[in-house]
Amino acid sequence: PLVTTGELITRAAAARSAVAAFNVITLEHVEAVIAGAESMGSAVVLQVSENAVRFRYGRLLPLARAAVAAAEHAAVPVALHLDHIQSDDLLRQAPDAGFSSVMYDGARLPYADNLAATKAAVDWAHAQGLWIEAELGRLGGKNGEPPLDAHAPGARTDPAEAHAFVADSGVDALAVAVGSSHAMTTRTATLDHDLLKRLAGALDVPLVLHGSSGVPDGELTAAVAGGIAKVNVGTALNIAMTGAIRDFLAAHPEAVDSRKYLSVGREAMVRAVADIIRVLA
Ligand code: G3H
Ligand code: ZN
Q: How many C-beta neighbours within 10 Å does residue 95 have?
């Protein structure tokens, strides 16, 4: 069934566990995430990013409608989240498109501008009954930009600044920069667990880990124990899908039916989803 992100995160945070949130780009991603979650008997978040909407010719509704229908028929609770939103126009489409939550991404902005833009997004989202996440500190790696130097100013989330940011903006959850980076194709990130502990101590909202594809299993387990309640995974699904399709087409150069390779790619994503959920369980 379709449920809200807020209820899944609240329950996970209370149990000191985490909900996996997977970025979906195609219908095959949607189907694979739900099948993987069903195989584990776990609730899951399907998230659509602003970049994914751009890929879909700028249109949110076709993929969103499909995701809602898939969620409604799922055997496990499934929530829909709009991810890394910078466009007000897209933000305002969230409720009608079936999303119960959004992530407003002002992390590129200087602190005061991030706070002001996030607060405006929070006020609007809460009036609509939406749960809203924001980001402070920078992970890098989005849109092809290199991962930030972990020691660069602003690359890590400062606990005192985060405390003020959450209090002044009213966000429901905070994405923190603790050593992960977006779009990593190797699982070689090392997290700053001491910083995560200080952030968890300073904040009374659930924490979100982005760029989790590059984080090894043991680091993920420790991050959940340290206060991460939502684990965002995107690139791992693309690695699984693309690798499986590449191998299939290399072995079957005569193949033309798209179902042949899409099904192979989808099954690889189902396994990747189950692998992540197993680590978080
Ligand atoms: O918001 C999305 C996540 O941060 C995904 O990051 O593609 O590096 O796993 P990833
Ligand atoms: Zn992210």
A: 15
